[in-house]
Amino acid sequence: MASLTDSVGVLKGVGQKRLVGLNKLGINTINDLLTYYPRRYDDLSIKDLATAADGQKVTVKGIIIAEPTVMFFGRKRSRLVFRIKIADNIYTVSFFNQPWLKKEVSANDEVIVFGTYNQARNTVQGMKILTARTANSFDSIYPANKEVKQATIKQLIKLAFDAYQPLLVDIVPASLRRRYRLESFHDTIKNIHFPESPKAAQRAFRTAKFMEFFLFAMKVQILKGAHRKTDPAAQIDYDPKVLDKFNAQLPFKLTSAQTKVVREILADLKRPIQMNRLLQGDVGSGKTVVAAIAILAAISAHKQAAIMAPTEILAEQHANSFASMFAGLNVNIVLLTGATSAAARRSMLPRIADGEVNLIVGTHALFQDDVHYANLGLAVIDEQHRFGVNQRQALRQKGTSTNMLAMTATPIPRTLAITMYGDMDVSVIDQLPTGRKPIKTTWIQSAKTDSAIGFVKKQLRQGNQVYVVTPLIEESEAVDMKNAVAIFERFRAIFEPDYKVGLLHGQMSNQEKDDAMVAFKNNQFQVMVATTVIEVGVDVANANTMLIFDADHFGLAQLHQLRGRVGRGSTQSYCILIADPKNEIGKQRMKAVASSTNGFFLSQKDLELRGQGDITGAKQSGMPDFKVADPVGDLNILTVANEEAQNITAEKDWKTKPENVQLAKYLQMNQTINYD
């Protein structure tokens, strides 16, 4: 029986060599071929060159007035030239490296040419010669490779569509198609590959985008449901009196955003289901105290809690913070990192294994083979994007029914929250504690660097400390950017001996980095020249100013993270961006950071300006690949598709409803999801 999962090898003209070429394009099955969408369309309707713009792709029809000629340059390069008369005007047409076309054209022939119009030279650089049948249409243009050409892809798609179109049944339920005016799957495929007009293609692409997002969201919801299996051992019956006592001794009142998030986490812990929650909070929003309440809840129910940080210095900071916060409560804390001495480790591990220690703070050392827990009820992952999925899972598996709370200070726009973390419940602290002063941010061009240095001197005289950030460690011939070593030497010449200047970069050992940050925290250095290694890390309350060189080389979200290293104390803080962006987008990015301290706004803006693949200067791991849908540009469609998937899977018997049968069947066959 024919199926959309048939290999493309079943099509006429697909031998072993061509099959390999198709596979390289990601085309393995008939379904892959039919959903191999064009990247653009060429409008082949005949144009009047009198109204055409310079550089425009045009289709023209005229009479060849002289015999075409071919000139060869070397072995493989050639140029075919002929002149055509259109109305009363003469135009020169040239085709490069297609000498065989000479056989198709002769003097006095009528010819239809598609190519690029050069207004100044009165020429058309030809791309292809059309027939009367192919002119006045919309030509689909596909990504191709050396093994499989454009024409072959089109021919195979037509073969597949003609043979398999009866199998193009609707997967999206009829009620959703009516509600959002979506086309049938059959018409979507037909109008994407063989559109009669640009509007027909546009409507079909709108449906294809919804389908991609919707099927992805359905998969995520099923995955989420699998995580939510009933597990009585995961339930944490915390003691509310212990939490009340903790809240009463806090020197501040929780913000309404923190209170809301605490309620969400505590409700999760009470359920007989493993918690899988992501806590987002902008820089300085107070995530640590929220984590402390979750940790104390687990400990009050006689469970252990562990918090894993990406660096030893951050782990140490957490251990000190929690020791201070939990003073007078029944919390026994240990710090376990790679720097923990062998003797300390030997005495610590049995106390963790028998449950005497109920809060373990550390780094990757927390999930090593010889670390055993008595009853790990809660695993907290700080700066979770710095850990791989396997590392997070390794810590969780140290307990039998461990609840997971992942935290990030990197604001994640809705686009990424839906696509990357759709299987997690998300809590957001979108409010800063009262009394915290927003960081004043200014963008200047490098010509004004001296005035920025003057401002730094003023801050140092007032007893404050300063960060100086640069994208490079050492000078690069390829890139004209300021570098940390050169700036370090320059600033030492300017500020020493009055003020000490330190250096911190990624090529230093962990111990050297930790030593440098501790020295800065203890005010042994007043100026810290650093690369982005200070993006996440230690709170230095006395540091109130940051200078960022070549700021246009960082992502907006990254600039916001860097800026968050200042503003930790009560004094007014400042961030000065030094950048000479080369284009309008670069200028927009600098203006955005200077005008907003809202990390969520900036991370969404970053996606819009830079694209989904490069949100922090590196390929964003975990982002799904969509064929036609763009999570940034099509955010509204993504949001609606996600909501509809949630609504459908919220019903217990959704798979047996008549309108969902094809959807359930498709997901089971194509998304390798096991419903059992």
From TrEMBL:
Residues 448-608 form the Helicase C-terminal domain. One of its GO terms (biological process) is DNA recombination. The keyword Lipid biosynthesis does not apply. The keyword Isomerase applies. Keywords: ATP-binding, DNA damage, DNA recombination, DNA repair, DNA-binding, Helicase, Hydrolase, Isomerase, Nucleotide-binding. It catalyses: Couples ATP hydrolysis with the unwinding of duplex DNA by translocating in the 3'-5' direction; ATP + H2O = ADP + phosphate + H(+). It comes from the Bacteria. Pfam families: DEAD, Helicase_C, RecG_dom3_C, RecG_wedge. Its EC number is 5.6.2.4. Residues 268-429 form the Helicase ATP-binding domain. GO terms for molecular function: 3'-5' DNA helicase activity; ATP binding; ATP hydrolysis activity; DNA binding. InterPro entries: ATP-dep_DNA_helicase_RecG, DEAD/DEAH_box_helicase_dom, Helicase_ATP-bd, Helicase_C-like, NA-bd_OB-fold, P-loop_NTPase, RecG/Mfd, RecG_dom3_C. Plays a critical role in recombination and DNA repair. Helps process Holliday junction intermediates to mature products by catalyzing branch migration. Has replication fork regression activity, unwinds stalled or blocked replication forks to make a HJ that can be resolved. Has a DNA unwinding activity characteristic of a DNA helicase with 3'-5' polarity. Belongs to the helicase family. RecG subfamily. This is ATP-dependent DNA helicase RecG. It comes from Lentilactobacillus parafarraginis F0439.
